[in-house]
Amino acid sequence: xxxxxKNPNEEPRRVASAKFVLQNQEDTxxxxxxxxxxxxxxxASSLTLSFRALQLAMVVLVGLYLVSGFRTVExxxxxxxxxxxxxxxxxxxxxxxxxxxxxxxxGFEIVSAQNREANIGHVFRPRIDAxxxxxxRLTKAKSSDGLxxxxxxxLITGDGDLAHIEIxxxxxxxxxxxxxxxxxxxxxNLFVELALEKAAxxxxxxLTLEELLDKPLEELRSLLHNHAQxxxxxxxxxxxxxxxxxxxxxxxxxxxxxxxxxxxxxxINAETSVERAVASAHETLIEAAGSNxxxxxEMISAYERVAELGDANLKKSTLIAINDLLKSxxxxxxxxxxxxxxxxxxxxxxxxxGQDFRRFQSLxxxxxxxxxxxxQNKWFDMYTSVLKNADVETMFVPSLISTVRLAITGSxxxxxxxxxNKLRKKESNTYLSESDMLNPWILRARDINPGTISxxxxxxxxxxxxxx
Length: 468
Hints:
The structure is a single chain. By secondary structure, this protein is mainly α. The chain has helices at 28-67, 134-140, 176-182, 188-205, 209-214, 217-235, 254-258, 260-289, 293-309, 312-327, 333-351, 353-369, 371-387, 412-438, 445-448; strands at residues 70-73, 77-83, 86-87, 96-99, 106-112, 116-119, 155-156, 162-163, 168-173, 239-245, 457-460, 463-466. Strand 2 (77-83) and strand 3 (86-87) form a beta hairpin. Helix 4 (188-205) packs across helix 6 (217-235), helix 9 (293-309) runs antiparallel to helix 10 and helix 12 packs across helix 13.
């Protein structure tokens, strides 16, 4: 048998693990068959052993995988079990050993259920130097210190004063299903803090500063607890506030504490000024529209709201209602006086311009049929009106010299009469200008057609109307 040439790229074979030696050439075939049978049996035994070991390892791994679905819930914990992300029970997990499908088929969401703390002490407190005591801060307090928005916190009381308060709470999860469905566990404290902030704003906003400072802490804690719990119940988040903690009593700003006597005096002065302003406003409104001014103010406010909406029909009906109220006996004072003067002015216009209007209205049909005749008659009437005056001189000039300019001196008697009439006319104009200034119903040009809505009424077309 010839030697097979070796391939230079072929990997070298491993060293033989068994070597067969044929000593008897006559029994070569028989011995080779027996040797091969022995090798096959050895290989089969090795493969069987390896497969059994693999099966055992797989069983162990499956067991470990199934055991990973077991979880122990401690007494201070709660949570929910999930199956492909969906909650599988209706009451949450109880303390003890819990079973579920192993991940990623199932899983557990376990959170701390008790003694969780939420603190909003910094929200409604000013920024202070922690190295100073309360007495030292009061001593250094100045009226110019002020509160900086975004840095210093405060609450507004029901009477408009400022107050500082520090609040913290202990809360727990009572319904893990609602909690898991509504809030990520990392946001649990945030929800409680927001509920406490809302409770503080509403509770303090319903009390005056004096009532807040005099109220017992237990009662204030109860009010804050009830309001914050009501907010959380509305959110259906499964959280219950077990306790609200007030480390210190509410207090006004530091400088107010330092000068509390001056604060009381300033507060009384402010209240007195407000009362005087209200009384003055009441007197002014009574003087303007009488004791029933509230009804008129409500109707004017309603008209302004309707005008902003742009409803023309509703605006017209509201304006008619205002006009009817102004013309009624319910309204008195300067408004009624203005309307009375306006009605007098309207009657005056009717007796002057109204007569001229009716006269020209009567001439209109004749003018449309014979315009030249009407114009000629009016010229004759004008000549007659002019020539009947006592101070008129008639001069006849020949037509041939009409282009010549003449300097003619009139009669002394006529000149004196003209001078007298001129003085009378000036006196009459002066009286009319003064009476116009005294007449409050005459509007200025900018008041006739205003462009914005106002409570002021204007006169248009002889009627008192609101601005539109």
